[in-house]
Amino acid sequence: MALLKTWMKTALPAAVMAGGLAAAVLGSGAAPAFAQPAPPPAPVGEQPPAWAPPKPAEIWNGHPVVWNSAWGGRWGAWINGGFISLTSNPVTGGG
User: Fold this and answer.
1) What's the superkingdom here (predicted)?
2) What's the CA gap between 77 and 27, in Å, rounded?
3) pLDDT (average), residues 23-43
4) What does the alpha-carbon distance between residue 91 and residue 51 come to, in Å, rounded to a whole number?
5) Is 79 in contact with 64 (CB distance < 8 Å)?
6) Residue predicted with more confidence, 76 or 34
7) Which of 8, 21, 76, 81 would bridge with 85, disulfide CB 3.0–4.6 Å?
8) CA angle, 64 then 65 then 69, to 5°
9) Mean pLDDT of 18-39
10) Residue 75 and residue 53 in contact, taking contact as beta carbons nearer than 8 Å
């Protein structure tokens, strides 16, 4: 019985400590952390047609104002992958 108590006080904690150190050295199965890739460059827009209204600004909210031919064409800015329209549709005069 005394031998069991001695083993519980010395050998068991040492084995647990050695196992913990081995797991730490091996990374305990955790995948290494990598930085996220850089986002793609902001779209530069398209060449505006001759009938396009004048460009309202060069920069809006820190983003370049570009022409986008979608929805009949309009000036706007690409922010977080979405197009923010700054002008109305020049063909219909609407949104």
Assistant:
1) Bacteria
2) 45
3) 59
4) 9
5) no
6) 76
7) 76
8) 130
9) 60
10) yes
Per-residue model confidence (pLDDT) at position 46: 87
CA 22 from centroid of its chain's CA atoms: 35
Neighbours of 33 (CB within 10 A): 5
Query: Above 90 in pLDDT, residue 59?
Result: yes
Q: How many domains does the chain have?
A: 1
**31 found inside a domain:** no
Report residue 14 as tokens.
């040492």
Helices marked H in 1-95: 2-26
**pLDDT at position 3 over 60:** no
Q: What is the domain range of residue 61? A: 45-95
d(CA 95, CA 91): 10
Sole residue written with tokens 């005394």:
2
Distance CA 36, CA 50 (A): 41
> Is there a domain that residue 83 lies in?
yes
What confidence category does residue 54 fall into, taking pLDDT thresholds of 50, 70 and 90? very high
